[in-house]
Amino acid sequence: MKLYGYWRSSAAYRVRIALNLKGLQAEHISVHLVKDGGQQHKPEYIDLNPQELVPTLVIKNTASESELKLTQSLAIIDYLEQVAPDVNLLPKSAASRAVVNSMALLVACDVHPLNNLGILQYLSNELEVSDEQKSAWYHHWIHKGFKALEVLLEQHSGQYCFGDSVTLADVCLIPQVYNAKRFNVPLDDYPNINRIWDNCNQLDSFKMALPENQEDAVI
Amino acid sequence: MKLYGYWRSSAAYRVRIALNLKGLQAEHISVHLVKDGGQQHKPEYIDLNPQELVPTLVIKNTASESELKLTQSLAIIDYLEQVAPDVNLLPKSAASRAVVNSMALLVACDVHPLNNLGILQYLSNELEVSDEQKSAWYHHWIHKGFKALEVLLEQHSGQYCFGDSVTLADVCLIPQVYNAKRFNVPLDDYPNINRIWDNCNQLDSFKMALPENQEDAVI
């Protein structure tokens, strides 16, 4: 397996955590999202990922000489759930599974997409908003999402987002918190999120996946 | 089951299609997203959905007198997949399932969140962008997403997004196309999307779920 990613991409970070939790190895290939106008826009990468986004997981089937190109971090993680079910990221009961999914999707659909690189570039280049406005935009969507997530965590969390086992909700939350800290979003009002951040980052699977621990990190 | 939704909400529209495809009944309760400053912001609704978004699916368990409150359309649909698996919205093979999920998530994570009501309100109220700029923003993210989706559809579609069976990808795509048409986005460059739109809207499950066929529709 080859994982095309970037050290600072939240979506690639999610997949790194999931691979580590499941004990799966992948060769990491860096797609620099800024250098040369963004390597994700090069024709050879677009052939792997028509959305021109990271991550992409490429799986070679040596028997059939075919190649599976998987895009969208949550689709990749669901694929890993199917083929490597020894470590499960979703609870067995349908009701619990729905709660975990709703927390993961709150981050993946309602926070992350508003704050990723392409959107911030559009705000600067097309709408010519100031750096202050861009920062306010970023903080706004983080606070909106985290405030609602805290309500769900108050009801369902333990050591981690859902009780005391690591789930897909943690896999999505931790990269988003990392990003929020990078953009100096004050997180004092989110005691459950802070506890889960601390607990997850005690675990090797999360530590190994941290952006600064990637080969392509520039610090 | 009670589905809290709104006729024009794309996310509620997805859940309506999924319920219809699976032959499940739910009482539809309208949450007017604009009237009175938005009924989704009322305390009694926030108790059901701390994100103040539709849809929410509420399931009463009469035996235990407990209530399950499910949020996030894709988490709700996954829940329905677990409890009503007779009609499957995802293929059995892990590789095919990943492709369907990637198409569904392309719409749900990278198109829809950028164009929903809250974002358009923020653009007007906080960033004071003009109506032309707001329309350009809307069109930009639709075109970006649909252009990439057409590449995937060219490889995988038949009558529907993935071969000749209706899947989660269609459930996500059709409400997004409906919205694009509402905002006058020209769709001539997307032959596969147009074909799938026509084919899905031949099916009762999709027709019954159309916004204009809802009780709370104002036309």
UniProtKB/TrEMBL annotation, chains A, B:
The keyword Magnesium does not apply. Belongs to the GST superfamily. Zeta family. It is an enzyme of class 5 (isomerase). This is Maleylacetoacetate isomerase. Residues 93-219 form the GST C-terminal domain. Pfam families: GST_C_3, GST_N_3. PROSITE patterns: GST_CTER, GST_NTER. GO terms for cellular component: cytoplasm. The gene is maiA. InterPro entries: Glutathione-S-Trfase_C-like, Glutathione-S-Trfase_C_sf, Glutathione_S-Trfase, Glutathione_S-Trfase_N, GST_C, GST_Zeta, GST_Zeta_C, GST_Zeta_N. GO terms for biological process: glutathione metabolic process; L-phenylalanine catabolic process. Keywords: Isomerase. Residues 1-88 form the GST N-terminal domain. Signal peptide: none annotated. It comes from the Bacteria. The lineage of its organism: Bacteria, Pseudomonadati, Pseudomonadota, Gammaproteobacteria, Alteromonadales. The keyword Magnesium does not apply. Coiled coil: none annotated. Its EC number is 5.2.1.2. GO terms for molecular function: glutathione transferase activity; maleylacetoacetate isomerase activity.
